[in-house]
């Protein structure tokens, strides 16, 4: 991706209440993610052993409708990101949005692959990330494939999901006991197979579109080989 196209991504991110860092720093971080220093191995030349298995959970979609996690992931490979839209760390939630948008665009050019994949962005800040807010974000990022934006009715509704995925999140408090509006969290994006098994966990430095797409293709090739095994 050239500098102009990266700038377009930055404009999208900076249009949100994310990414309040300098524009050049945003460009540098996004460039590193979209142009990694390593080349992922070819799909199917490596294995992704199951890491964990997750449970079903009730959430809200960007239209305010209750939806079960497995209703969106069942029968598909899923890429799941936990985020909040007020995040100002360009290497966190905004980075995840940029990478997922690139995955979304790549999948849109390969409908035979997109048919097997769903992308989920789940907010752990339901107090601010209401369905209406997530609908605005979704409209800004303009998904071209199955990319869902989810939240909960209350923070208590999100806690079981975070615990299930082993995603630690904590509010940062000021010295006078007021919430700063910031969450302490580590970027973790999860790859699930069709059986709700976690097959990879991406974080800063190892989360880029090419790797995610190769991992998706690797899981599909694994399924094909299993189907042809006597």
Count of strand segments = 10
Tell me the number of helical segments per DSSP (H or I, 4 or more residues long).
8
CATH class descriptor name: Alpha Beta
Strand order of the largest sheet: 1-10-9-4-5-6-2-3
Strand content: 15-25%
Average pLDDT, to the nearest integer? 85
- Cα-to-Cα separation, first versus last residue: 43 Å
Evaluate the radius of gyration.
17 Å
What is the correct CATH architecture?
A: 3-Layer(aba) Sandwich
Given the helix and strand composition, which structural class is it? alpha+beta
N-to-C SSE string, H for helix and E for strand: HHEEEHEHHEHEHEEEEH
CATH fold-level label? Glutaredoxin
Overview of this structure, please?
The strands form two sheets. Strands 1-10-9-4-5-6-2-3 form an eight-stranded mixed β-sheet, sandwiched between helices. A hairpin with a 4-residue loop joins strand 2 and strand 3. It is globular and about 65 Å long. The protein has 230 residues and is of the alpha+beta class. The model is unreliable at 1-24 (pLDDT under 50). It contains eight helices and ten strands. It is 39% helix and 22% strand. It has a single domain (3-227), classed as Glutaredoxin (3-Layer(aba) Sandwich), CATH 3.40.30.10. Helix 1 crosses helix 2 (23-34), helix 2 packs across helix 4 (93-108) and helix 4 packs across helix 8 (209-227).
